[in-house]
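re: ur msg from earlier - yeah i can do the adenosine-5'-triphosphate complex, just paste it... oh wait u already did. ok heres what im feeding in:
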Amino acid sequence: MKSYFMQPLRGTKDILPYEIIYWQHIYTKASAILSLHNYSEIRTPIIESTNLFQRTIGETTDIINKEMYTFIDQSNRYITLRPEATASIARAFVNNKLYQNQLQKFWYLGPMFRYERPQSGRQRQFHQLGIECIGSFSPMADAEVIHLANELLHQLKLKEYILEINSIGNLEERQLYKTDLVKYLLKYKKDLDADSQNRLYSNPLRILDSKNAKTQEILQYAPNLNKYLNKISTEHFYLVCTYLDNLNIPYKINYQLVRGLDYYNQTTFEIKTHSEDNQNTICGGGRYNNLIKQLGGPTTPAVGWAIGLERLLKSIQTELILHQQKINVYIATQGLAAQKKIWEIIRNLEKENIKFELDLSNKSFPKQIKRADKLGAKFCIILGDQEVNNNCITTRKLDEHKQYTVPYSIFLQEINKLKH
Ligand code: ATP
Ligand code: MG
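and the outut:
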């Protein structure tokens, strides 16, 4: 009988070595591109006080309502596995008094946790790569941040994606809009989908996100949020779009893009692939000028995004073919004397940065050489009693099936030849 605990938990996955190379590739590319713009990596804890997320993400959002992994620890504290990183980074920013430096640019990569129905591109433990640019009201910050998402996705060979962008204004603008939106939608209440009917009272802006065809039809004639923006928000949005034009980044303005977290204001954006399912959003982000103040810090504007890495990988794995680096050298030994002597050779291979595998099977030389071949090694170093007694070493060039024996000292002198 298979034990249930031998399965990974629903919605979680092992990432095996053949996949890890993709994750390492993403990490390396992100680190290179982002450090060029002077972004520094930050790592915050995976567990935080439940209150941190409740107070920032918003009581009526899906994340807080139904997706949090929350438990009570031995000291009766409510703890949550982070569903996203922005709240944690804002907390770290305030907590470590990082506001003493005027501008902070951070990036992160790590696991996030949401209790959702697992589907392709939707897991309970998933990974986000994200950036946060903290300390600037300038629309240039929005443009730089969006440019970085675009550049990274481009360099990671994501094909055919579209940037959608909107401005949701500030709190007062949204309040006025909300009142008018609800007034309009109440006229059609019975025709709205059930979720949207509930949201009329809890979070009416999220109705704009509804995938229901009938609801969308009703929304076509609803008041438009952009008509409620004041001069500052309108100007900000106009400039962000202008900078994107100057960067040659194509985008589509989507007046219904509101995003699922409460802390956003002004700019919101998503990068989507053309796939038809509900998991086609690869990157989501926006501006959040009030979050840090709300957590007890000084008024500090910020803008950022997060990319879902499982979704990204699903889209790029066909374009981006990576192979694990093969070993150059396989080390075959036999007998105690050889196994005592081999360590000096290992030290020299390390010094020369030559990738190798040490055979640990204690099988016959032919079997060890067979494995060297299977692993795609270029050379097999052979050290047995005979070599030890004659103070020499045998090297086999695997693709030519040729081997030669040279004095030990010469072998060491010429060890860097095993690189090629
Ligand atoms: P969705 O509408 O698809 O649930 P979201 O708005 O909840 O997405 P965000 O909170 O904006 O997602 O997170 C940013 C990105 O993280 C998403 O665009 C997506 O790529 C990824 N993401 C979010 N939730 C999951 C999940 N459960 N599994 C895998 N990736 C996820
Ligand atoms: Mg979600």
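cool cool. The two ends are 51 Å apart (CA to CA). ping me if u need the other ligands too
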